[in-house]
């Protein structure tokens, strides 16, 4: 099947289309329904009748955008009318929801008259928190947007005009920086003079370019003052007092080419005629004004190239803008999306492109290097950081420019945005904030590993900890430099420094386990796991992270041998935190103890309960089995039963524990309260202790893969000093997350 056939099947599969309405409150009981509708709904109606702003408190208005079109200028399809444009508008709704958690009603108006269109949208103002205009032909789109901005009191944004302007504007900021040119000196040529081109030219002026340096060409050539009376008022503002000519004439000596016209109209000779290190934004879709390879091959110097296509570097994709602009605007109840907010968005995107790129984003684009430079001047659309970078910046600009109706606390707002991307990010924010309040020193074994170096940069940059990279100092610094990371990491190089005392200590600890003094010296110099373990044991670092390129057992062995478990603990355990949409569960043991007895199970439960509290979760523990409270009696079911009894009798255990019980009994409220009302657990468990390593490992992976849970970990509990063993292949964000947990562990000590 081809793309068209695949797309048709995608859209027609039940249910047809791409969006639906879902409820956000319980509707299971008669009382739920009486609250949702009659008679309970009267109470919020009266509140809003007294004060219309209460609609933001009691309804979904504050998170609802109307995507409105008449289908008169659908990208690549032209004037196909309102009904045929509906799949596009639904698609826009998908992007709003996917990238910024904004709900959308798509509105297709069968109306070409600008006045009537405006009147129709005005009547819908009470429904929405904002209006996104889409695929409306020029010059009607200018009139419609201008009038709506004047006549309604919610944000209005025509993405076809401003989206390309903002995203390409961010690219221009970085392209000029890389080319070593000032914005005000750039000679810019536009191919195309439609809504997008005019809005983009205007926006470049807002960024600092000079209007008198912009040459705009339409299908008849350069728009000059001689032609001013032939063109509409919007083109006329870019008429220049220069000789007439065609696009080739305009491009000669230009610094920047901006293509918003048709494919294939720029030749290599035209590119060769431009100034040094030219910037070419060939954004016609699906075929750019000149192909990427052609433009790059036309010159020997740097050609900084962007297109509208995803299969080449530097895609100018509007999804980098509109979801996050509206997110920030909605969250401060802005009355408009003004120029200050658009500029803030462009500057935030430009800044983000200069930062280290998450592994997940690199993987999504074929593991190709993504590093600030000619081939990476704007972030990728799937980069989750765009939400946290752009939305707060836009919201802040709205407040400072007077467009906002509410203020906001930046730190609290960033946490709210984290929660929109999932429970795992919300939970990690709790730990990150705790870590930043009192940073500790974290030793990173395998310090030459690129991921460890990038993680060290982020850990230090975010103020989470003071990282120490263990490894070859020259190699570490060279790698950091090649990655473009502007930081000077603290390095402990076992081959260079005086670490005889570490070798002596390792020999002292392991002499009766067969390690000679010579072997201890070799382990300290050649194995960063032993080096890091002794470093932490001696108090020269507060915590250790290791395991990125080792099997879990081999990475765990040195810390167990050197640091060992805490004084009151006999067994370490590996715990995963699994986060669902509205639920958090800690799963133990998933990495360490193969066949635990009741004492080990009890110890693991206590340590996992302590870990839950570091995430501000009050533990409720269930010891799992295939039996419910003695329904099966054998050696296997007695172990968790006896462990539960031991914990219930322990005065030091100050959280509810019960077992043995089946997994569904532990997590389903109706089963727990209905059939087993005698249980010590009054609410479903959030700490699940599996009877052995095999079941624990299987259980967490099934919950992760089939249950859609996000897994954080494994987090090692029970050690005398904070140690966490990474899994091979973990991403930089996983290292940063576990470093945060390690810091909070160290704070507890």
UniProtKB/TrEMBL annotation:
GO molecular function, a single term: acyltransferase activity
Where the record annotates domain Malic enzyme NAD-binding, the positions are 161-399
Q: Which terms are listed as keywords in the entry?
A: Metal-binding, Multifunctional enzyme, Oxidoreductase
The record's annotation in InterPro entries points to:
Aminoacid_DH-like_N_sf (IPR046346), Malate_Decarboxylase (IPR051674), Malic_N_dom (IPR012301), Malic_N_dom_sf (IPR037062), Malic_NAD-bd (IPR012302), Malic_NAD-bd_bact_type (IPR045213), ME_PTA (IPR012188), NAD(P)-bd_dom_sf (IPR036291)
Gene Ontology biological process terms from the UniProt entry: malate metabolic process
Per the UniProt record, which EC number(s) apply here? 1.1.1.40
Required cofactors, per record?
Answer: Mn(2+); Mg(2+)
Give every Malic enzyme N-terminal domain span.
16-149
One Pfam family here: Malic_M
Describe the family membership recorded for this protein in Swiss-Prot or TrEMBL. In the N-terminal section; belongs to the malic enzymes family. In the C-terminal section; belongs to the phosphate acetyltransferase and butyryltransferase family.
- Protein's recorded name: Bifunctional malic enzyme oxidoreductase/phosphotransacetylase
Q: Which organism is it from?
A: Natrialba asiatica (strain ATCC 700177 / DSM 12278 / JCM 9576 / FERM P-10747 / NBRC 102637 / 172P1)
Task: Identify the taxonomic lineage of the organism of origin.
Answer: Archaea, Methanobacteriati, Methanobacteriota, Stenosarchaea group, Halobacteria
């Amino acid at each position: 099947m081809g793309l068209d056939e695949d797309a048709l099947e995608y859209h027609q599969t039940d249910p047809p289309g791409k969006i639906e309405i879902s409820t956000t409150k319980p509707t299971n009981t008669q009382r739920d329904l009486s609250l949702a509708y009659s008679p309970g709904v009267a109470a919020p109606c009266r509140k809003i009748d007294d004060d219309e702003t209460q609609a933001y408190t009691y309804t979904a208005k504050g998170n609802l955008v109307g995507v409105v079109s008449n289908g008169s200028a659908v990208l690549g399809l032209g004037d196909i009318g309102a009904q045929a444009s509906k799949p596009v508008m639904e698609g826009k709704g998908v992007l709003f929801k996917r990238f910024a958690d904004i709900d959308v009603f798509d509105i297709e108006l069968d109306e070409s008259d600008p006045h009537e269109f405006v009147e129709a949208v005005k009547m819908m103002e009470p429904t929405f928190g904002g209006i996104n205009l889409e695929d409306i032909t020029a010059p009607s789109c200018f009139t419609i947007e201008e009038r709506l901005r004047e006549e309604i009191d919610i944000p209005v944004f025509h993405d076809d005009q401003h989206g390309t302007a903002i995203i390409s504007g961010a690219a221009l900021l970085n392209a000029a920086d890389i080319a070593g040119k000032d914005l005000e000196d750039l000679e810019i040529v536009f191919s195309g003079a439609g809504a997008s081109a005019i809005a983009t030219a205007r926006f470049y002026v807002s960024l600092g370019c000079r209007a008198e340096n912009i040459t705009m060409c339409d299908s008849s050539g350069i728009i000059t003052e001689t032609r001013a009376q032939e063109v509409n008022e919007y083109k006329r503002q870019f008429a220049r007092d220069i000789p007439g000519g065609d696009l080739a004439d305009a491009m000669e000596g230009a610094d920047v080419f901006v293509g918003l016209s048709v494919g294939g109209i720029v030749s290599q000779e035209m590119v060769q005629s431009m100034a040094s290190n030219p910037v070419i934004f060939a954004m016609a879709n699906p075929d750019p004004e000149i192909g990427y390879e052609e433009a790059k091959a036309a010159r020997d110097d740097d050609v900084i190239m962007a297109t509208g296509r995803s299969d080449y570097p530097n895609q100018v994709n509007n999804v980098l803008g509109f979801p996050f602009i509206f997110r920030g605007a909605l969250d401060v109840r802005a009355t408009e999306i003004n120029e200050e907010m658009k500029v803030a968005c462009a500057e935030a995107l430009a800044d983000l492109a200069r930062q280290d790129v998450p592994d997940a984003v690199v993987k999504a684009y074929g593991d190709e290097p993504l590093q600030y430079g000619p081939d990476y001047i704007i972030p990728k659309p799937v980069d989750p950081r765009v939400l946290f970078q752009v939305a707060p910046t836009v919201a802040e600009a709205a407040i400072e420019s007077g467009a906002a109706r509410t203020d906001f606390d930046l730190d609290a707002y960033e946490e709210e945005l984290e929660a929109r991307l999932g429970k795992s990010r919300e939970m990690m924010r709790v730990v990150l904030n705790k870590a930043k309040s009192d940073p500790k020193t974290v030793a990173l074994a395998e310090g030459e590993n690129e991921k460890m170096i990038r993680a060290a940069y982020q850990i230090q940059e975010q103020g989470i900890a003071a990282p120490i990279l263990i490894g070859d100092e020259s190699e570490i610094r060279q790698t950091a430099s090649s990655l473009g990371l502007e930081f000077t990491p603290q390095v402990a190089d076992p081959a260079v420094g005086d670490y005889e005392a570490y070798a002596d200590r390792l020999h002292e600890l392991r002499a009766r386990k067969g390690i000679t003094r010579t072997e201890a010296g070799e382990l300290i110099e050649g194995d960063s796991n032993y080096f890091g373990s002794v470093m932490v044991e001696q108090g020269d670092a507060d915590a250790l992270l290791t395991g990125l390129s080792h099997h879990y057992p081999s990475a765990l062995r040195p810390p167990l041998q050197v640091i060992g478990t805490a004084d009151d603990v006999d067994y370490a355990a590996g715990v995963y935190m699994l986060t669902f949409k509205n639920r958090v569960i800690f799963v133990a043991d998933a990495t360490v103890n193969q066949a635990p007895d009741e004492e080990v199970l009890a110890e693991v439960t206590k340590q996992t309960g302590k870990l839950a509290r570091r995430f501000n979760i009050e533990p409720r523990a269930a010891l799992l089995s295939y039996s419910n409270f003695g329904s099966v009696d054998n050696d296997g079911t007695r172990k968790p039963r006896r462990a539960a009894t031991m914990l219930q009798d322990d005065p030091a255990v100050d959280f509810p524990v019960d077992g043995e019980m089946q997994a569904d009994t532990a997590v389903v409220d109706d089963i727990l309260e209905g059939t087993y009302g005698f249980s010590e657990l009054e609410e479903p468990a959030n700490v699940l202790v599996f009877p052995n390593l095999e079941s624990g490992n299987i259980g967490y992976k099934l919950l992760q893969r089939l249950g859609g849970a996000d897994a954080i970990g494994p987090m090692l509990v029970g050690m005398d000093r904070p140690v966490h063993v990474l899994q091979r292949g973990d991403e930089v964000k996983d290292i940063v997350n576990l470093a945060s947990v390690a810091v909070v562990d160290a704070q507890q000590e």
